Amino acid sequence: MSMTNRIVLHxxxxxxxxxxxxxxxxxxxxxxxxxAVEEAASDFSGSEDTHILVEAxxxxxxGQISAVWxxxxxxxxxxxxxxxxxxxxELPRIGRENITQIAVKQVICKLLTKITGQTLPWxxxxxxxxxxxxxxxxxxxxLETGQGIILGQKYLISPEKIKxxxxxxxxxxxxxxxxxxxxxxxxxxxxxxxxxxxxxYCSFSFEHGSGRENKLSxxxxxxxxxxxxxxxxxxxxxxxxxxxxxxxxTPTVLTAAQLDNLLxxxxxxxxxxxxxxxxxxxxxxxxxxxxxxxxxxxYRVNRLSINPQxxxxxxxxxxxxxxxxxxxxxxxSLARQLGDWIINMDIILGLPGEGRTEVEQxxxxxxxxxxxxxTIHALALKKRSQVWENRMLIDTGSSWQQIQRAVFRxxxxxxxxxxxxxxxxxxxxxxxxxxxxxxxxECRYNIAVIEENETIFGLGAGACSKIRxxxxxxHQNIYQPSDISVYLDKFKSVDEKRxxxxxxxx
Length: 506
What we know:
- By secondary structure, the protein is an alpha/beta fold.
- It has two domains: 6-118, 3-Layer(aba) Sandwich (Rossmann fold), CATH 3.40.50; 182-505, tm_1862 like domain (pyruvate-formate lyase- activating enzyme).
- 42% of the residues lie in helices and 21% in strands.
- The protein has helices at residues 16-20, 23-29, 82-89, 99-116, 131-139, 144-153, 159-181, 212-236, 256-269, 290-298, 313-318, 325-338, 356-369, 386-389, 398-413, 444-451, 484-505; strands at residues 6-12, 34-37, 50-56, 65-71, 74-80, 185-192, 240-248, 272-281, 303-305, 342-349, 373-378, 417-423, 432-437, 456-459, 464-469, 474-479.
- The strands form three sheets. It has a nine-stranded mixed β-sheet, sandwiched between helices. It has a five-stranded mixed β-sheet with strand order 2-1-3-4-5.
- Helix 13 (356-369) links the parallel strand 10 (342-349) and strand 11 (373-378).
- Helix 8 runs parallel beside helix 17 and helix 13 packs parallel to helix 15.
- It is globular.
């Protein structure tokens, strides 16, 4: 059925806010389409747009709800009966959405499945953290069987994804309990938004090219000021960093001397627990050498990310990386020789030009290296990235779902288990990102970020602080500016806001 680049949602007896909340679900079926919400017209004939009309009979939470697809002369209809809605009402409410919101999303999802032939493995879920639904049900003492019924019938999540959520939740449970008992513990994220080159799929704020060294020097000076401010806040409130995570960009783009200076500053100003976790992203193997690794070892960094994304040279060149597969293998080998740190490797499914054959080659090569963690990402179209600007489309159909299923099976058969999970919009196969670990080598910081169950101080350009309210079980997000020049001028004002929010929650 033909359609335009603009899809308009309309409602009759439906709150416009509910329709607005459904836009992400529609976007999951249609990449790079403009999704809008407008009042319903009496006649849609002659319109150049594609329309979805959602209509409730009688009271929205009691009567039948229907959805009609209108594209040119084509029409398709789907409905949810009042009996089906009453069955949904009998299930426990575990999220923020009420029955009307659930029913509207269900009818839209079922309509678009009929239109496109796509079945979304995550059903009507469009949020980043679907695992929070399992956490909520655990808090209500709902057993796994009951959880499966709720997730399947209410949210239309596939049995495969329900099982995955429950596996991840079981591994995370001890970390949730620790966060509840030791609320003085916090996490620290340090942003170093500089890279040797921009990958085609990257939308992060970062710097490279001419004039970078001067700006990098200024950036590190200001970052150290922010570290000292946060360290003083932590000492005044008896907080301890249980996790430190230095991310980017590519932090190992710094020279060994710059790394030494930054890590020494952190050691001086940030109070930590005795068994603190210390991670640095060394994502590009062409930024890793013996001197830098020995520096990291000196400051007891115990986790590294060496991220190939793919083990195919042609793809590496195509996405803008300046290294080869052999560089990845050499950097990994050197790291293993010099330290006993836990090493993570990231893989991306859906990279341009890759399919099942290339992915299978990558997974075989990575498993031969035996990293402690493997994170499988689904390529996501992000605004401001090269693939977005080139209007690239990602296959959202079943092929990537099948490839991912084979990848997961191979990783699980090699002794890994899934320990954290999150989702992104516009991703290959509408899939999720999953971190796998050798048992006992989970990354505590990753769990803290996904669970949002402890305060995280985010330092540096583009970093997000999550200030946890332990009583209300909520958090406040406070962002440093993404633009480095703006950050250099405004970091103190954001720090003041963060400090005030943190003190109010104590």
